[in-house]
Each structure stands twice: as C-alpha cells, then as structure tokens.
Design goal:
4-stranded parallel beta sheet, alpha/beta, two-stranded antiparallel sheet
Length: 330
C-alpha cells in the first residue's frame, strides 16, 4: 500500500513538473477550460491581487470581413501586439507575419507583393531597443516563396529549464486561490501600506501601474533624457529605416505605444515626454504611426483596469491607424 501511495505521489509531482516545462500542453489545458488563466484579470492585478482592479479582460472583436489589399505586413511587435491580442483578421493586408521585436529573426517569408515593416514598441523599451540601430531581423531576397512557414508545436514539447511562472499560472489561477490572495493583499495594504514591489498606485489610487515605468532607470518615463540622447536615438531610428529599406522593404514604419504610467500616472513624477520628442524631431526620417494624442485624450478608457496594456478601444485606435496607412500605401 505504501509503495502504491509513493507511485501516485510521484506521478502527481511528475505531472505538475511537466506543466511547468510544457507551455503548449498548458495552453491546451487552458483552451479546454481545465485550467484557469491567471492573467484573465490583467497582469497588474495578477501581481497585486487588489480586488479594486479585478475586472475580466475584454475579448476584442476581430473584423475578418475587411477587404484585403495586395500588401504583405511584417510586424515586429511586443506584448501589445502579441498573437492573442491581434491577428491577421484585424488588418487589410492580404498576408501577415508577426514576430517579437526583442528577438532575432532570420526566417522571414519571401513575398512578391509590396512589403511593409512596422516596428512596434512600448515606450518603456524604446531607449534600450534603439541604443543602437535595430537590426534584429534579416530579410533574404534569394528565394521567391510566397507561402509562410508554419510550425505547429507538439503538446509534448518541453521548455528547459523548468518555468516557475508557467507552473504558478497552472496551479494558482483558480478563483478560490485568488480570493485568498486578495485577503492577504488587502491586509498588507490597509495595515502595513504595502503592495507588490512590481506595481505602484497613482496618487489618486485609481490606477495601478507597472514599476518599470516609475523606478529610476532607462525604462522610466520620469528619467531625465538629455537632448543629446534624443538626437542619438533619432539617428539610430534613421539608420534602421535605411537598413530595412535596403533589404527590400517598400516601407518601414515606427510606432511607439505610450506607457500606462505616461498617461495615467504623471502625478508620480516629471514626465520626460519621450514619445513626442522623438516623433516631432525635425531630423526623424522614418514614418510613424502615432497614437499618443488619442491616448492622452482618451485616458483610462484606453487601458485595461488591471493590466498594463491597452483596452479594446485603445487597440482599435492603433489598428485603424495601421490600416489607414496600408491603404495609403497600396
């Protein structure tokens, strides 16, 4: 009997370990509603567990009925444009490839139609990404293949080493666990004035914000930026523009997404106005897709309550601007 119990325990722990190493398998269980996604109320709620900011993330509509134009859209993006948020259906381009702006990519599809590259980055990472010209991607013109390469990950694939965040997401996303975490978070907040170290509250306590936007460093929207650095960043953007045009892209466009803190947390410091200083610089050669004015005007409705990313309204503003630009280029 003891041996049977040992084997059962071993099997349980082996399964739990496997969940922490196989993202495709965990994603499958989430899709089947067997596991709960602990990001469903937002990344900042997930860190803080403050119930005031607990609101289910919206599932944004995708408009597949858009009439397509003969343009191939290449999107180098970050978490604002990840596949779970935005897809080919949202764009008027008849072909679409998306990759991570922070990662190297040499496996870009070769297409015969007009090629448009959009480099999308959230404001907090702009300075680090353009400390030098951005050359993470390569586009090879030696082939004439019109089909994109598609790889389907196996449910049994493993990510080594073990991923603790993936494991926690699998085990602790259930509502009963979240209620316990909320009580703990409220006790720490009201009795000790403490919240998770990776989040801040605006001074009016109505907005929850990501710590990187606020604490001293290159990612902070309150970090002082000398005009000399702005000129260097603009120069690196221009080199990037010429580089990708030389590789065969018909147009290359920059889009900087405002930090939530830059719009809703300015009462925490002196905003450095990074976006407008780049976008309005007279020496900037790369075309831009800017949403800064719209976000400044729209305020809190353009960001999810418990998340650092845009809401469906904010996302749609950006998508509409991209599509307008693509229609102009056709």
């Amino acid at each position: 009997m003891t041996k049977i119990i040992k084997y059962i325990v071993l099997l349980i722990f082996s399964f739990l370990w496997f969940l922490g190493c196989s993202k495709p398998f965990s994603d499958y269980l989430f899709d089947q509603k067997i596991l709960k996604d602990d990001f469903r109320y937002g990344d900042l709620y997930r860190l803080s567990n403050l119930p005031k900011f607990k609101k289910p993330l919206q599932k944004c509509k995708q408009f597949s009925e858009k009439e397509k134009v003969k343009i191939s859209l290449f999107l180098a993006g970050d978490s604002f444009t990840e596949d779970k948020r935005i897809s080919k259906k949202d764009f008027v381009a008849d072909s679409y490839f998306r990759g991570n702006v922070a990662e190297a990519n040499e496996d870009l599809p070769i297409v015969a139609t007009k090629k448009v590259l959009i480099i999308e980055t959230v404001e907090r990472h702009f300075r680090e990404r353009f400390t030098e010209p951005w050359k993470n991607w390569e586009y090879r013109l030696k082939k004439n293949e019109e089909k994109f390469k598609i790889s389907i990950p196996s449910l049994l694939s493993l990510n080594m080493p073990y991923n603790e965040k993936l494991h926690q997401a699998s085990l602790f996303g259930f509502d009963v666990i979240l209620y316990i975490k909320e009580w703990k978070a409220l006790l720490n907040y009201y009795f000790f004035n403490r919240i998770d170290e990776k989040v801040y509250l605006s001074k009016d306590k109505n907005n929850i914000l990501y710590y990187l936007d606020i604490e001293p460093g290159i990612s902070s929207c309150f970090d002082n930026i000398e005009e000399k650095e702005i000129e260097k960043l603009v120069s690196n953007v221009n080199v990037t523009y010429k580089y990708y045009k030389s590789l065969g892209f018909d147009e290359v466009i920059l889009s900087i997404i405002p930090n939530k803190t830059s719009i809703l947390g300015r009462d925490l410091g002196n905003y450095n106005h990074l976006i407008t200083r780049i976008e309005n610089n007279s020496k900037l050669e790369m075309p831009i897709i800017s949403v800064y004015k719209e976000f400044e005007k729209g305020g809190s409705k353009l960001y999810d309550l418990g998340d650092s990313h845009w809401s469906c309204d904010g996302e749609q503003i950006w998508i509409n601007k991209v599509n307008a630009k693509l229609l102009d280029l056709q």
